[in-house]
Structures are given as C-alpha cells and as structure tokens.
Amino acid sequence: MTALQNTNFTEHLVTSIQWVLPEVALVGVACLLFTLAAFQVKRSVAGALALLALVGAGALALLYPEQLTRFEPSFSSIDPTGAAGFLRWFALVAGFVYVLVNWHEAGSETPGEYFACLLVIVAGLSLLGRANDLVTLFLTLEMLSIPTYVLLYLPVSSKMGHESAIKYFMLSVLSSGLLLFGFSYLFGLSGSTNLTVVVSALSGATQSGSTSPLALVAGIFVIAGLGFRLAAVPFHFYAPDVYEGGPTGVVAQLALVPKVAGFVALAKV
Rounded to an integer, what distance in angstroms lies between the CA atom of residue 155 and that of residue 151? Predict the structure, then answer.
C-alpha cells in the first residue's frame, strides 16, 4: 500500500510540474538574468533573453497541453481548470508588452535585474490563476509584490521616486500581514489550506447554521489584505503618491497587474 501511495504521489507531482512548466521556465530565465547582472549584462541582451523566455513559455504551454485525468481538487495545490489558461496567456502577452514598454526605463546599469523582476511578476500572475491552496495563493501574490518593490526603486534617483517605493513597500507588507492573519483563521476553521476543502467546510457550516463568527473575522481580514492590492476604498490612499513618484512603465504595470491579481484572488477565496 505504501509503495502504491508513493507511486501515485510521484505521478501526481510530475503531472503538477507539467501544469506549471512555462512558469518554471520563466523563473529559471529570471535566475539566469540575476546571475548575468553581476557581470553587467547589456540591456539589449537582457531584454532579448526576457522576450525569448516569454515566447518559450508560450511554446511550452502549447507543447504540453494539460491532462486533467489525475486532477483532484481536494488534493492538488495546483488547479489548471477554470480561468487558469486565460490568465496564463494574459500574463504572457502583458509581459511581452511590458518588456517593450520598459525597454528604455531599464537603463544601462541594471537591465538584468529589471527584466528578471518582470519575468518573476509574469510567472506569479500566471501561477495565481492556478493556485488551489492558501499557501500557493500567498506565495504567488508575493511573487507579484516583491519584484515590484525593486522595479519602483531601480530606475529612479529622485526623492519622490524613493518615497513611492518605500510607501508601496510598507503598505504591501501591512496588507500581506492582514492577508496571512485571515488565512490563518480559514485554516483553523477548516483544518486545511486547500481552497476546495476550505470552501466545502465553510459552505457545510453555513448550511447547517453553525457558522463560526471567526469566519466573518477571516473574511474581513482577507478582503482588507486584498483591498490594498486593488487600491479599493478605503485602502487606496497610497496610490496617488506611488503613481506620481514611480517610473511610467512600472506605474503602467501597477495599474493593471495587481488589480487583476486581486480580483482573481478574491474570486478564489
């Protein structure tokens, strides 16, 4: 029985890796760019590698179509169904556009780090649509946030630019703390981090009339944590300063990617 369980686990692990192979490729090229940045890679080389990585990720998505025969929602932390395919292609196309838009803002001193951060953001947005676990969901949201701190800081040398990066960093850390606090309550109420199990547990409690007040507390903290990413009222007060002081290309990315990610995360939770 143990051998059979190990075999099933191995097969499931291989299948799950195939479901996220394009995103793994993007992160791999991002690591390569971070390494090349230590040797002062040229902007043309770094940008070309980023564009090739996005095209290669699209090719991998076409070459390895998702087989759902082994998909078990209550077990898997990766969900390739629903809007996951659409969000992957949306992220790849948006990433290609953002590389071109940010070509000159990348500068000549730090283009490797700049384009590497963009690739991590694209991979995070794509993985967000496949997250079926609270831990996976949080990690993908951080893959969007942490590189954005760097992108806000790298191309600017003005005090206003530095102020925008610090404000976004501090408030993003606060929103992550609120989100994790809400997730901890969801885990405590359901006994699992799997989103399918969490939804089933809370739905069953609601139908039986035994919903815990802590479920409301969890919902409030989760909505508050994601509200910062959406810049939704009343969590929007940081947006004017960040948008005014940030580089144009990064602000264009901030105006779209965190909003899409926030709505997707809300829809999942």
Answer: 7
Q: Where are the extended beta strands (E) located within 111-240?
A: none
Residue type, 204: G
Tell me which residue of 120, 140, 126 sits closest to 50, measured CA to CA: 120
Predicted TM-score (pTM) of this structure: 0.87
Give strand pairing partners of 78: 131
Please give the Cα distance from 180 to 8 (Å, whole number).
31
Per-position DSSP letters for 53-79, written without gaps between them: HHHHHHHHHHHSPPP-TT--TTT-SB-
Q: String of b and e for 31-63 (b: at least 16 CB within 10 Å)?
A: ebbbebbeeebebeebbebbbebbeebbebbee
Residues 6 or more apart whose Cβ sits within 8 Å of residue 220? 182
Q: Helix (H, G, I), strand (E, B), or coil: what is residue 194?
A: strand
Which are the contacts of 167, defined by CB distance < 8 A and separation ≥ 6?
238, 241, 242
Short-list 82, 87, 98, 182, CA closest to 134: 182
Q: Please, what is the Cα angle at 72 between 70 and 73, to 5 degrees?
A: 145
The helix/strand/coil state of 133 is strand
pLDDT for 191-247, tens place per residue? 888 888 888 888 766 666 666 788 888 888 998 888 888 888 887 877 888 888 778
**b (16+ CB within 10 A) / e for 119-149:** bbbbbbbbbbbbbbbbebbbebbebbbbbbb
